[in-house]
Amino acid sequence: MFPLLEVLKSLAQLSLAQLSLAQLFTATVIIVLSPILTDRIAAVRSILFSNYQDYFFPQLTMIIEESDGFSQNQLYAAARTYVGVLFSVSRKPRHFKCRRAIKGEKLVFDFVGEDFYQKKDIAREDSIIANFEGIKLEWKSRAKINEHNGETVSKYFELSFDKRHEKKVLEYYIPHLLARAEEIRKEERVPRLYSRGGSGLGEWLSINFEHPTTFEKLAMDPTLKRMLKDDLDRFVKRKDWYKKVGRAWKRGYLIYGPPGTGKSTLIAAMANFLKFDIYDVDISSINSDLDLRKILLSTSNGSIMVMEDIDCARLEKGGQQNKASSAKFTLSGLLNVIDGLWSNCGDERIIVFTTNHKDKLDPALFRRGRMDVHVHMSYCTIDGFKLLATNYLKIEDDHQLYRQIEVLLANVEVTPAEIAEELLNSSGSSDDVVLARLVEFFEQKLHVKAKAAELKERLKSADIDVDAEGLVKFLKQKKLENAKEKEVEQLLNSGDTDIDAEGFVKFIKQKKIEDAKAAEAK
Ligand SMILES: Nc1ncnc2c1ncn2[C@@H]1O[C@H](COP(=O)(O)OP(=O)(O)OP(=O)(O)O)[C@@H](O)[C@H]1O
């Protein structure tokens, strides 16, 4: 160890009162005359300075925890955004994390928290200084570590500043931080897509949500699209209005329509439009009302909580009357999150439900004020088709086949997903060829539709030319097969079966061959 450094360190540990003039003089001379030691001397100077500071101006330290064990601390989330940006604009501290997203161009700088040092076994020492109207504020990222397994228990920030500035920090700096973090989120940030992972219910894994879909690229009824954009725009601008009328600042959307009509694509467009994070909630993994509340509380403001295929939720009976309902996942628990007491937690929240079968949903979900906006994603119309043709083929003007396509689309049900798939597979061909192929595709669909309608009509009419006996036989056979399958399943589940494993494997093999043959025959 360098002896000069030792001298300086011991000097630094003395309080000012204990330092004689001679000692101070010696220290000053060493500092001035030792340019090679600049870095180390700077460290010692800062220790001396902080001792002096503490003596005359005691510091206050504010703890900002990530969570209170129940819900996410919005101030922590804002601080993380804010401090991250401090790095990109200030001189970097000695340790910081630097990364680049898979598709991102910008470098991202992250504060190195104590848990990082703990895990890597490096000495902890980093912090960053912010300046606010002449006030020096020191940010430190910390973590509580489990002594036994070295895992991070929780994270928090320490914000230290001169006690004299307490009022100003609380009244001006903290609101400034919140507003700044909000600005950063809206202007610069790429939305993130969260999905539940990890051990706890509230634990989310996330990635940058770099989905290319915007409203401009979305094939849907133009009037509905405009209405939706205006609605979202109004929603984010009406913070004061919601407060004034005493309503929670949230909005619910029910998006319904057949598979492939763009329900998920619309959600992506909404997130990109608002620059909101998406929390993708797998409805089948929710087992109780309590689960749902925990999930809700672990999401942040300015986000979209998505529950796809809401008709598949395994909602149990038991509503307001049942006091123990929080142990089950019930309709009333779901409604409570949409417009009950629990819907009031957080601000600027959007909840989206999607379904392919609106008719299967409980009417209670539609009661006025519950799902504010119902969006029907329909089969492709000519407007949607033209937009897809512009997206994929860059056709901007009218095309001679559009009139024919319009008539066809009015008579067949084709999803935008099907058209997108066809367009994707036709890359490299001329526009005329691609559109002609699509006309063929629609005509084929029209033909199948006409055949099915004809068959239905003939079945209804008296003069059916159907081998009724054969049909009955076929149906009986099918019924028998289904019943047998069920029986086998029951037997296998019951546990008291004496399974002949070899025979079973033979049976499955045989079944596989039969299925393959049947598929081939088709
Ligand atoms: N309205 C649309 N506009 C543009 N592209 C679309 C649209 N609908 C579907 N697509 C294309 O089809 C793909 C599948 O669509 P998407 O997953 O959004 O449909 P969905 O209605 O959510 O289907 P599902 O009910 O099966 O989840 C998208 O990735 C997109 O490329």
Automatic annotation (TrEMBL):
<dbReference type="InterPro" id="IPR003593">
    <property type="entry name" value="AAA+_ATPase"/>
</dbReference>
<dbReference type="GO" id="GO:0005524">
    <property type="term" value="F:ATP binding"/>
</dbReference>
<dbReference type="InterPro" id="IPR058017">
    <property type="entry name" value="At3g28540-like_C"/>
</dbReference>
<comment type="similarity">
    <text>Belongs to the AAA ATPase family. BCS1 subfamily.</text>
</comment>
<keyword id="KW-0547">Nucleotide-binding</keyword>
<protein>
    <recommendedName>
        <fullName>AAA+ ATPase domain-containing protein</fullName>
    </recommendedName>
</protein>
<keyword id="KW-0460">Magnesium</keyword>
<dbReference type="GO" id="GO:0016887">
    <property type="term" value="F:ATP hydrolysis activity"/>
</dbReference>
<keyword id="KW-0067">ATP-binding</keyword>
<dbReference type="Pfam" id="PF00004">
    <property type="entry name" value="AAA"/>
</dbReference>
<dbReference type="InterPro" id="IPR027417">
    <property type="entry name" value="P-loop_NTPase"/>
</dbReference>
<dbReference type="Pfam" id="PF25568">
    <property type="entry name" value="AAA_lid_At3g28540"/>
</dbReference>
<dbReference type="InterPro" id="IPR003960">
    <property type="entry name" value="ATPase_AAA_CS"/>
</dbReference>
<keyword id="KW-0378">Hydrolase</keyword>
<dbReference type="InterPro" id="IPR050747">
    <property type="entry name" value="Mitochondrial_chaperone_BCS1"/>
</dbReference>
<dbReference type="InterPro" id="IPR003959">
    <property type="entry name" value="ATPase_AAA_core"/>
</dbReference>
<feature type="domain" description="AAA+ ATPase">
    <location>
        <begin position="249"/>
        <end position="381"/>
    </location>
</feature>
<dbReference type="GO" id="GO:0006950">
    <property type="term" value="P:response to stress"/>
</dbReference>
<dbReference type="InterPro" id="IPR025753">
    <property type="entry name" value="AAA_N_dom"/>
</dbReference>
<dbReference type="Pfam" id="PF14363">
    <property type="entry name" value="AAA_assoc"/>
</dbReference>
